[in-house]
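#struct-pred
JK: can someone run the complex with 3-methyl-2-oxobutanoic acid? inputs below
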Amino acid sequence: PEKYRPTITPDLPNRQWPNQRLTQAPIWASVDLRDGNQALANPMTVEQKLKLWDQLVAIGFKTIEIGFPAASQLEFDFARRLIEENRIPDDVTVQVLVQAREHLIKRTYEALQGVKQAVVHVYNTTSTVQREKVFCKSKADIKAMAVQGAKWVQSYAKEHPESNWVFQYSPESFSQTETDYAVEVCQAVMDVWQPTPDNRCILNLPATVESTSPNRFADQVEYFITHLKNRESAIISIHTHNDRGCAVAAAELSLLAGADRIEGTLLGNGERTGNMDIVTLAMNLYSEGIDPQLNLSNPDSWVPVIEEVTKIDTHVRHPWVGEAVYTAYSGSHQDAIRKCLMRQKDDEPWNVAYLPIDPKDLNRSYEAIIRVNSQSGKAGAAFVLTQEYDLNLPKWVQQDFAPVAQTIAEQAGGIVSHQMLYDAFIQHYRLD
Ligand code: KIV
Ligand code: ZN
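RT: done, structure tokens with the ligand placed:
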């Protein structure tokens, strides 16, 4: 990240930009194996979950939600495999989800028997519409459900003192809950757990369905944080979904509003339009010189694992890691890139037009950046011939050869290989 610096936003006349930008990575929690998995038409097998688990650990996640062990035998068995096969490194904490219901909480602790440390994540919905139309319960009743759930989580933990437990509570659909009521419910949960600054609980604020603009969601988060009495005893976690396409923006603004932790999935698989994409947020940070604390540097090794277990292809234009993101087709882009690359010095911060980061940092090759097709002007052909074949073409040759390159691209029906281009060049100037 030293190679990058914060994006310069030119000042507008008479306007002071608030100097708010992120300066460090959040605490990450991957929910690929739980929220991601529950969104799949064919949920993962235990073997697939193990494969994804290994990948998440390799990338560097320190908290991984592994599933809902009380919900199915497969999820239960997966938790047991991780624990019994000693697959959980000492610095990684597993997290499990459970509803605020006693028999489910009891079963969850059975699944976790013998774990060194775990986050027990209990939730119930607090949204207005669910209170009124689904549960037909009052605010007080829903709060009582949360409090009761918190008590069960705590009392079953006491029966398993051999493990270190961290408690997490989510007011599901936080974004569709009156924010002062969400504070009241979470405060009541904290009253049960009695966390301290040295032994914090996690309060996770979900946009279960993204139903507001990202700035409004961040306002809710800010209100929540500033009205929570013992904020220093809680890790404030954000769990956004992407229904309006703004899950990453909502997460970034929430961090600026004071949140500490982000839940999401790699490449954004999750219910409906997805969970917050950790890759995008992590790489956004990276491109501004912030160490994301995750090693995403070789997408060619981990993207196929995600695709295999989710059976979802990655869009070619997926931010940062899509196949096409470091390819320039238009001549003016190619020209600008060529000039910037020529002038980019190794000891200076990266500053190349149209390339927000050096593709090499994601193990992408420069060769893929410039292709010559019927759209590209003189610069594309010149770039390939210079880079690949060490031919330093004077300007008049670049101009002279451009129509030749375009003609062969048209004849080839699209993209011209570097070799075709070179052969055409040699032939055109009778250099052989
Ligand atoms: O989206 C959501 O609300 C969830 C919770 C259960 C945390 O996934
Ligand atoms: Zn979710």
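RT: quick notes.
The chain has 15 helices and eight strands.
The longest helix spans residues 139-158.
JK: thanks, will look after standup
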